Every structure is written in C-alpha cells, then in structure tokens.
Amino acid sequence: QVQLQESGPGLVKPSQTLSLTCTVSRGSISTYYWTWIRQPPGKGLEWIGYISSISNTDITNYHPSLESRVTMSLDTSKNQFSLRLSSVTAADTAVYYCARGAGDDFDSWGHGTLVTVSS
Amino acid sequence: QSVLTQPPSVSAAPGQKVTITCSGSNSNVENNYVSWYQQIPGTAPKLLISDNDKRPSGIPDRFSGSKSGTSATLGITGLQTGDEAHYYCGVWDSSLSARVFGGGTKLTVL
Fold first, then answer.
1. In 10 A of CB A76, how many CB atoms?
2. Which of A29, A103, B45, B53 could form a disulfide with B65 if both were Cys (CB 3.0 to 4.6 A apart)?
3. For B50-77, how does the pLDDT look when each residue is reduced to its tens digit (9 = 90+)?
C-alpha cells in the first residue's frame, strides 16, 4: 500500500517561499496525479494543484487563485514531488497534505504538515 | 465560501442512519464524479466514496453514495461513535478548472 510523507519547514516568514516535499514509498511516482491540498486551522480543504508524468512529460494544473505563486516539481529518481509557494502571507498558514490523485478522487494521503507563516 | 454547499452539522443516535448532502451546479456535481472523504479530528482525510457511489476496498457497506442532478448524498447506516468526524464532498469544477470541496459537515453520534 502506497505511503506518502510530507517534509519541510514548519515556520516561514511573510513574503518568503514555502517549500515542501512529499516522499512516496511502496509505489511508483511515474503514474497518477500527485497533488497538494491544504487546510487552514479550523477550516475546510483547499486543492492547490497536481503534477503528473503519466504521459512521460510533466504536466501541472494549479488552482487559478494560486497559480501565480505555485510551482510543483517531480523527482522520479527519489520518488518525491515538491511544492513551492511564493510570497506567502498569514493566509497561507495551514496543514499541507500531499495526496495521490487516481481518476477523480484522492485515494492516499500523507499525514499532513502544519506550516505557519509568521515573522 | 465553497461552491459546494454542505450542512455544517448533522447528528443522530448510535445505530441510526444519517444523510449528508452536497449541493453544487452543472459545472461541478451534475457533470463530474463526486467523491466523499472522512476526516477524524487530528488525522488526514480518508477516501470513503469515489465516482459518486463506489466504495474503495476496506470501506464498510454502511457507507453509500448517490447523485441526482446537481446534488450528491452520502449515507451512513448503523451509526457508530467511531463515525464521528467531518465529512467532505469533492468534485472537479469545469468552470473554475479546479478541484473543489464542500465546506464540510460535522457528524455527531449522540
């Protein structure tokens, strides 16, 4: 059964760049849609976007409201994918989850990592 | 606020049945597959229902999904205290070109 684990700094200063990595184990990263989803404290889920190399070419799809600040990348040699979110503000404080997108749903999730934006 | 509307909370007694609705539009629920997720406090969401009405392996048949028009419904029968959680619907929105989630419904098993 595939397992996902997020890693990265838990504290980021305003205006800086948030960087997270998701390590995938017990499964290949060469298929599926590798996704980032976040959840502000006490609030609901927000889809950030996905990256995939299903067609042997990396394709990305980001939420329109975040598109100007988001970059995702895939490292198949390490079975990892990453998120970079630039120019962060307090509104970006959230638990960030990585997940595996299979068709129209997310069938495996990481445990999540809290990222706080504060000076 | 979300483009998908869920009731903020529902409650029922152990052993009873509850339904949670997810109301959307023709750009999301009506024309795309809906999935449902269970989030027990302090843990990651877990896929309960995929493709409107399919249960992934390991999900009890007490959980069911259905869809009609612009609304989807999650049903839970034989409620247990362990079912207390937040439940979210999710679907692709063709107008936004983004995956969207409902605001979540907190289930209390009295």
1. 13
2. B53
3. 999 999 999 999 999 999 999 999 999 9
